[in-house]
Structures are given as C-alpha cells and as structure tokens.
Design brief:
122 residues, mainly alpha
C-alpha cells in the first residue's frame, strides 16, 4: 500500500490538507514501540480492507457478533489475532467486550501491542 495520493481524483484537495495527510502517513510508516514500520503499514492496509470483509458485515448485522463464526477476508500480511483486532476495532467498536479483549491477549497478543494497533487503526 502506498501513502496518500490525490492525482486523478475529481475533487480538489487543499494543499495544506494534502501535506497533513502526508505527515500522518509518514508517522504511521515509522517503527512504533512494538511494531515495525512495515507492520504498521500492514495494519493500516488491513484497516482499509476491513470494510470489505464479509464476516465483519455479517457480524455487524447480527444481534450479537459472537453469533456469527467464520474467517476474516484478510490481506494475509498479519497474524489472525491481529486481523481480528483490526477488523473489529474498525467495523464494530461499540460491541467490543472485556471478554473479547482477554481472548485476544490470551492468543498471544501483548496488551501493549494491542494498544499500538488501536492507535494505528484510529
């Protein structure tokens, strides 16, 4: 995934906004405390991709997201637990539970790494 580019779009973007987007993208692409720059870019790519995930759409439509099982439509660059965290934070954050968080942590994702994922996703 590349950074921010507006060439070829039919709408005008102010120069200061384009510069702000470029600076934000450069920060995302830098190594964080727990994730490399490449991993953070992969998290950002998965964040964008999550809105096209069939599992996430079905979970969002369900009375409970836990009533729907399946696998995320993922780009394939991240571990399954990371993909689940990214997709749920992006597509259905209002129904995240402590039990879900504890399950993610129990799968081997350190809580500090989770916090950095949240920062990249938002």
């Amino acid at each position: 995934m590349t950074g921010i580019a507006y060439e070829g779009h039919s709408f005008p973007v102010r120069v200061d906004l384009e510069a702000a987007h470029r600076r934000a993208w450069e920060r995302i692409a830098r190594p964080g405390t727990w994730w490399t720059g490449a991993e953070r870019v992969a998290i950002a790519a998965e964040t964008r991709h999550a809105t096209r995930c069939d599992l996430c759409r079905r979970r969002k439509a369900a009375l409970s997201p836990y009533a729907v099982e399946g696998r995320h439509d993922a780009l394939g660059d991240l571990a399954e637990a990371v993909v689940d965290a990214v997709h749920r934070i992006r597509t259905d954050p209002g129904r995240l539970t402590r039990a879900w968080f504890e399950e993610i942590i129990a799968s081997g994702l350190a809580d500090a790494r989770y916090v950095e994922i949240v920062g990249v996703v938002i």
